[in-house]
Amino acid sequence: MDLDSVYRAEYGRCVATLTRLLGDIGLAEEAVQDAFAVAVGKWAGAPPANPGAWIVTTARNRAIDRLRRESTREARHAQALLLHQPAEPEEAGPVRDDQLRMIFTCCHPALSPLAQTALTLRLLGGLEVPEIARAYLVPEATISQRIVRAKKKIRDAGIPYRVPEAAELPDRLGPVLTVLYLVFNEGYTATSGELLRTDLCAEAVRLARALAELMPGEPEVIGLLALLLLTEARRPARVGPAGELVVLAEQDRSRWNRELIAEGHELVRWCLRRDQPGPYQLQAAINAVHTDGRATDWAQVLALYDQLLRHTPNPIVVLNRAVAVAEVHGPALALATIEELDLPGYHLLPATRADLLTRLGRTAAAVTAYDEAIGLATNDTERAFLESRRANLVPGN
């Protein structure tokens, strides 16, 4: 495992652990970044057996050194001395996981919704600003400003890094679910480089399981876990032998993880029995249909998308629904449903248009749409897939 891989896999855990030790998110993040800078020279391409522990220990020591240098008051000295003590007693409260605790802390109601999720994705997922901006379809400058302001708000308002009381958990739930969903999505389709970041997928699933243990009677929590499990189950078939993207219709279903599918289906059935549908439960139900049997029942998928659109009337749902419309009613009607969509910078809109235009035999318009999608795609694997589809329309070009 190289240093970049360690950074992607361990950054969030290390920041969360250091925040618990230091009680200061900003100082924790700086200390972890310092530790990774030290690792560049120390590891020489060969990480230690437990790189995360090495980073935490080094970051802790660097933080102590910084506090000693900068301390001008007894409180700072006391804080540095506390860091020398052995592991502190486990903090009481319902959230035991450092990273899950960090998510709830960053989702404090004093912060705006965008600041909550942007900060958490940066600190927990280790996502860079461009990756977060892509998830929200907003300019990078906007995300940078939100993160800076959120850190300042936490510091100036004295927002504590602590376990929320049980009564506070429901109010924090929406942003927490959003964060886990976005972390998984970044792992399933990375902003850049190769298609998958399995470390992020695994971490999102782990935290979703922890959240489900914390709130076992909350349907949307169970729905999110089911959604992630059913999506993760298809991951082994999502890339071909050469690392190329394989779309759902062309995947080898024998490669899907049947244990995850069975678990996800059971969770969906649990949600159905509660009869309190929400966006994550409906998305989970859609994925349950995709993973049930030898072929997708597109009429059922479309009915679920109609229900999801009533719950969550946004252009992404409209775009995804168009795929089901095409399968049930044909590409012409599907194309009509997305012609007025406005999703600046979102490559899947022109990619979907290109596919529908191809199916309609409108080759010239499809090529133009593929060119637009290729220009917007930032993931190498997705771009190569789009280029191959375009090449099929214009052989030898």
From TrEMBL:
Residues forming the RNA polymerase sigma factor 70 region 4 type domain are: 102-154
List each copy of the RNA polymerase sigma-70 region domain by range. 7-71
The answer, when asked if NADP is one of the entry's keywords, is no
Q: Which InterPro entries match?
A: DUF6596, RNA_pol_sigma-70_dom, RNA_pol_sigma70_r2, RNA_pol_sigma70_r4_t2, RNA_pol_sigma_r2, RNA_pol_sigma_r3/r4-like, TPR-like_helical_dom_sf, WH-like_DNA-bd_sf
Q: Which UniProt keywords apply?
A: Sigma factor, Transcription, Transcription regulation
Q: What is this protein called?
A: RNA polymerase sigma-70 factor (ECF subfamily)
Can the keyword Cell membrane be found in this entry's annotation? no
Report the family membership. Belongs to the sigma-70 factor family. ECF subfamily.
Which residue ranges does the record assign to the DUF6596 domain? 172-269
